[in-house]
Design a protein that fits this description.
It is a single chain. The chain is mainly alpha-helical. Among the domains are: about 120 residues, Orthogonal Bundle (Arc Repressor Mutant, subunit A); about 130 residues, no CATH class. It contains 24 helices and four strands. The strands form two sheets. A two-stranded antiparallel sheet has the order 1-2. It has a two-stranded antiparallel ribbon with strand order 3-4. The longest helix has 18 residues. The two termini are about 40 Å apart.
């Protein structure tokens, strides 16, 4: 159970102690963001804590605050908080984990102090007990994540302004009326960075939090004056994909087709084609999806849009793999791998390698598959990506099946379930794939 006595002051004292013990400097802006507070609100907390004698400020000769130190009372309070955190065992019914896991163990997987602070605050103060989901969101929100790289590439697109015609299409659609109905009455985003909000919305959407993502996209589209075309396209495509999650395929595809016809900028048009291709792949429309993906490749050249091009190649590879065309899929994934290696996109390198390992294994090259999976696991462990580690172990189990080692296949499969799998549907899919591969060997 969550200790009801653990409040925000307790979290702040614990956070300051953690930052000092790691020989870091308190970044008040990052700290306030980790706690979900405005900077002015966080500063009020600091003043109140100082007044109560738990904290003192360290000033330079001119009287400017340089850092903060805990008093004896503050240290005692932070130790109590640490003991509370250490006592928490996460319940698999609500945590997103498949078994009981100590909260302390999860926190150790996060490489950044401020990431740990955010998780603690969301767990204790906001009551967000799905810790596996928080971990997944944290991974994607990092500046070196594949989503961050892709968004920066879209932000940098070179093209003419065409907002008026596109806004007319959106505002006249049934989808936009749904967004307006679900959106907040006021603007909660006034003190936050637009690009950070777009990233947050993209992460929420990809994790299936459709209402949360729609709220942000809608807030940006309706309330932000001067939202330039690249960011408008991202918000628009995000809304479209949210509506697909709601199974509103007919209206969504009509809106998307109308928008593509009215889009003058070829780069924007290609980006919308990629969005439609992803939708058509989910609808098992192989011919249309593959045609759209391939038309995108003509626009997204490696020199100017390497991340988007690699993403298209990867998705096209998945499409062919599902079709049973393993050699074509392997060629596309190898092309994507070359691109992400050139730009040093480490997470994408290893996730693409995991896809390739399955193909190599099915082709009998289990040695190469094991090498790729071993390299991926080492990186993902360093990055604190528990979901990725679970993916590696699952694929290790598939390799062991191809090697004919039933015992080790079961070992790796069971180990893959020791770590969080954020999506229950993903758990179900993996278990079905594993069962099918085992049965193919007569086991």
């Amino acid at each position: 159970m969550i200790d009801p006595q653990l409040n925000r002051v307790d979290i702040i004292l614990y956070s300051i102690r953690s930052i000092r013990s790691n020989n870091e400097t308190l970044d008040r802006k990052r700290m306030s963001r980790s706690l979900g507070l405005k900077l002015s609100t966080f500063n009020r907390y600091l003043r109140d804590i100082i007044f109560k004698g738990h904290l003192r400020s360290v000033k330079n000769e001119s009287g400017r605050i340089m850092s903060y130190k805990l008093t004896e009372a503050g240290l005692n309070g932070s130790e109590i908080t640490e003991n509370v955190i250490s006592s928490i065992i996460l319940d698999p019914e609500v945590s997103g984990f498949l078994k009981k896991v100590p909260l302390d163990l999860v926190l150790k997987q996060l490489r950044d102090t401020y990431e740990r602070i955010e998780l603690i605050d969301r767990f204790f103060i906001h009551g967000e007990q799905n810790v596996a989901r928080i971990l997944e969101e944290t991974k994607f929100m990092r500046s070196d994540s594949n989503i961050s790289y892709l968004l920066r590439e879209v932000f940098s697109m070179d093209g003419e302004e065409e907002l008026r015609s596109l806004e007319e299409i959106l505002t006249s659609s049934s989808i936009y009326s749904i967004c307006q109905k679900d959106g907040p009455a006021d603007d909660p985003f006034s003190d936050q960075d637009i690009d950070h909000l777009i990233l947050k919305a993209e992460v929420q959407r990809r994790m299936g939090s459709v209402k949360e993502a729609l709220c942000i996209y809608d807030g940006l589209l309706r309330r932000r004056k001067g939202l330039e075309s690249n960011r408008w396209i991202l918000c628009f495509s995000g809304i479209v994909q949210c509506m697909v999650y709601e199974n509103d395929f007919e209206d969504t595809l009509e809106l998307l087709n109308n928008t593509m016809e009215s889009t003058r900028n070829p780069t924007h048009k290609a980006f919308l084609k990629k969005v439609k291709a992803d939708i058509m792949q989910d609808l098992d429309s192989f011919i249309e999806a593959s045609g759209l993906y391939r038309s995108c490749l003509g626009i997204f050249q490696e020199r100017t849009y390497p991340v988007i091009r690699a993403s298209v190649l990867n998705n096209l590879g998945v499409l062919y793999f599902r079709k049973g065309e393993k050699n074509i899929a392997m060629g596309l994934w190898e092309d994507a791998l070359k691109i992400v290696k050139k730009i040093g996109l480490k997470w994408s390198i290893h996730m693409t390698s995991i896809n390739l390992a399955d193909v190599y294994s099915l082709q009998g090259n289990t040695k190469k598959a094991l090498r790729l999976l071993g390299e991926a696991r080492s990186f993902l462990k360093t990055a604190g990506d528990l979901e990725g580690i679970s993916d590696v172990d699952f694929n290790m189990a598939l390799v062991q099946i191809e090697k004919g080692d039933e015992k080790r296949a079961m070992y790796y499969f069971n180990r893959s379930e020791d770590f969080p799998l954020s999506y229950r549907m993903k758990v179900k899919e993996k278990r079905e794939v594993f069962k099918g591969r085992m049965e193919s060997k007569g086991w």
